[in-house]
């Protein structure tokens, strides 16, 4: 029998037909014994399993959420992006399916071989351009007469948008997307042979009241090294517990690189507005801080340490003596 799953209603109807004699059980057995021929189109070679396509869909659903956040911030308006389909088809068929004149961004993704294509419908691209330039997001179509400024603004916008793919693919592999080409005519773009299998992920996007499509074309040569990582078995092996130490390490590294302002307060004082206005070079201001007492060092405006002023290599410096304890704040760290 075929691999299709029958509903309970269909099963009941089949049993009823056999009971009433409308269908012969022996004939069904003979049909089962006959070899079934399945049509296969060699021009449309399927190199990815359904399991792998589902994994790619999950990855790019995360990418869609990242793009939604990015474009909403850049365009300062409501943006909604969703994955509508993930298909594998010949590269030539994909090129024929997109408009004759459209926005094409070609990215290299080292260390992977090959290039990835991001196709943006002109209506969406011009709406984004209008928002970036301070407009209401109106869409016009003059793609054949793009100015150098418009080309530069669009390419910068989509180049920064595609950087989110690094985070979306982080559980599979580390990539460094780089914009290598900006084109408007698909006929001038030949990334892979016409019969090469590509995965096309289609996104629906709404910018205010303007809607359109964004397509990402990923050739087989790009995904070939990471195909084993697209299986459910790999995703189950890479459990959350195994990923947590890596995520914590990344978070810790970013915290360590954060800059903190440290202020050594030499001492406060008070002067009248009149004295302040009459200050000149060479005047001396008396501070209300004894010279024999340590200075207070504040980190982010919070008192943390006591220190002693001095010099290191002819530059002013402060030596930390102990933790600051005072004013109701006690920090042992």
Descriptive notes:
The structure is a single chain. This protein has 333 residues and is an alpha+beta fold. The protein has helices at residues 8-19, 25-33, 50-75, 91-97, 122-132, 148-162, 164-168, 220-223, 232-237, 240-256, 273-277; strands at residues 79-90, 103-108, 115-120, 178-183, 197-207, 210-219, 262-265, 295-299, 302-312, 315-323, 325-326, 329-330. The chain folds into three domains: 8-38, no CATH class; 44-253, Chemotaxis protein chec (3-Layer(aba) Sandwich); 262-330, Roll (Surface presentation of antigens (SPOA)), CATH 2.30.330.10. Helices cover 35% and strands 25% of the residues. The strands form three sheets. A six-stranded antiparallel β-sheet has the order 1-5-6-3-2-4. Strand 9 and strand 10 form a beta hairpin. Residues 327-333 have low confidence and may be disordered.
């Amino acid at each position: 029998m075929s691999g299709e799953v029958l509903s309970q209603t269909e099963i009941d109807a089949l049993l009823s037909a056999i009971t009433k004699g409308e269908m012969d059980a022996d004939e069904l057995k003979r049909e089962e014994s006959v070899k079934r021929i399945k049509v296969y189109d060699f021009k449309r070679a399927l190199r990815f399993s359904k399991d792998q396509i589902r994994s790619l869909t999950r990855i790019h659903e995360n990418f869609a959420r990242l793009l939604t956040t990015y474009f909403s911030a850049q365009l300062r308006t409501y943006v909604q992006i969703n994955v509508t389909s993930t298909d594998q088809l010949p590269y030539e068929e994909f090129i024929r399916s997109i408009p004759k004149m459209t926005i094409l961004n070609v990215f290299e993704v080292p260390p992977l071989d090959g290039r990835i294509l991001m196709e943006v419908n002109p209506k969406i691209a011009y709406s984004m351009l209008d928002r970036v330039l301070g407009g209401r997001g109106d869409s016009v179509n003059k793609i054949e007469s793009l100015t150098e400024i418009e080309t530069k603004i669009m390419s910068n916008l989509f180049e920064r948008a595609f950087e989110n793919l690094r985070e979306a693919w982080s559980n599979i592999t580390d990539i460094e997307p780089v914009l290598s080409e900006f084109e408007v005519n698909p006929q001038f773009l030949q990334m892979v042979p016409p019969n090469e299998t590509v995965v096309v992920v289609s996104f629906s996007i709404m910018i205010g009241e303007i809607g359109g499509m964004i397509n990402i074309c990923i050739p087989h040569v790009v995904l070939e090294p990471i195909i084993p990582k697209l299986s459910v078995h790999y995703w189950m092996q890479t459990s959350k517990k195994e990923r947590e130490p890596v995520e914590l390490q990344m978070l810790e590294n970013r915290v360590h690189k954060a800059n903190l302002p440290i202020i050594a307060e030499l001492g406060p004082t008070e002067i009248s507005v009149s004295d302040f206005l009459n200050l000149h070079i060479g005047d001396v201001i008396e501070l209300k801080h004894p010279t024999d007492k340590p200075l207070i060092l504040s980190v982010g405006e919070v008192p943390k340490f006591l220190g002693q002023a001095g010099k290191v290599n002819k530059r002013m410096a402060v030596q930390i003596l102990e933790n600051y304890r005072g004013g109701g704040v006690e920090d042992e760290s």
